[in-house]
Design a protein that fits this description.
heterodimer; A: mainly beta; B: globular
């Protein structure tokens, strides 16, 4: 599986935008970029995914670099409930989800 | 629509005991999988299934058995529990294993083996 690199932790203030980076320089053409998050003591929760184009949903936006070697998860206005570990995962066609250690996002009031 | 349901939520076992962790989904998903998560670490894949009657091993399958007799259920069996199997276990399901499908996770089973 192609690997991703994320910062161990990031901090943000409540109601400010948050940009969570992910590098995936060995991505292949069929790899989808997925983001999941895990709140304390809960199971992972799907956030967003994309292939080539930027994607938006009610939770977040996903910005994908033109060469697809990096992507950024954007939370438009962080809330305390957004404090979680965020996982950036590459998933090829018909494969399993492989989790790394993710980025722990701390949100301050 | 309950999503992915795991039972029990908590369990304490003695070394050598066996037990089954239950996982059920009501979304008619073909793909189901089991992960374990140890403190401070990401999730590691134990076993997965691409449909009823089909299972395969993940990254850390030793000490665990699975079977998939129905689309809805994917139980995980610990044959002879060991302290090293103390962990939080998550079950997940998705429409398929295709890269463009999202996965849904259960709330986890916290297992302690003493």
């Amino acid at each position: 599986d192609a690997k991703t690199t994320q910062p161990n932790s990031m901090e943000s203030n409540e109601e400010e935008p948050v940009h969570l980076p992910c590098n995936h320089s060995t991505i292949s053409g069929t790899d989808y970029i997925h983001w999941y998050r895990q709140l304390p003591s809960q199971g992972p929760e799907y956030v967003i995914h994309g292939l080539t184009s930027n994607v938006n949903n009610r939770m977040a936006s996903l910005a994908i670099a033109e060469d697809r070697k990096s992507s950024t998860l954007i939370l438009h206005r962080a809330t305390l409930r957004d404090a979680a570990v965020y996982y950036c995962i590459l998933r090829a066609g018909y494969s399993t989800l492989t989790f790394g250690k993710g980025t722990m996002l701390l949100v301050s009031p | 629509n309950a999503g992915v349901t795991q039972t029990p939520k908590f369990q304490v076992l003695k070394t050598g005991q066996s037990m089954t962790l239950q996982c059920a989904q009501d979304m008619n998903h073909e793909y189901m999988s089991w992960y374990r998560q140890d403190p401070g670490m990401g999730l590691r894949l134990i076993h997965y299934s691409v449909g009823a009657g089909i299972t395969d091993q993940g990254e850390v399958p030793n000490g665990y058995n699975v079977s998939r007799s129905t689309t809805e259920d994917f139980p995980l069996r610990l044959l002879s529990a060991a302290p090293s199997q103390t962990s939080v276990y998550f079950c997940a399901s998705s429409y398929s294993s295709y890269g463009g499908t999202e996965a849904f996770f259960g709330q986890g089973t916290r297992l302690t083996v003493v």
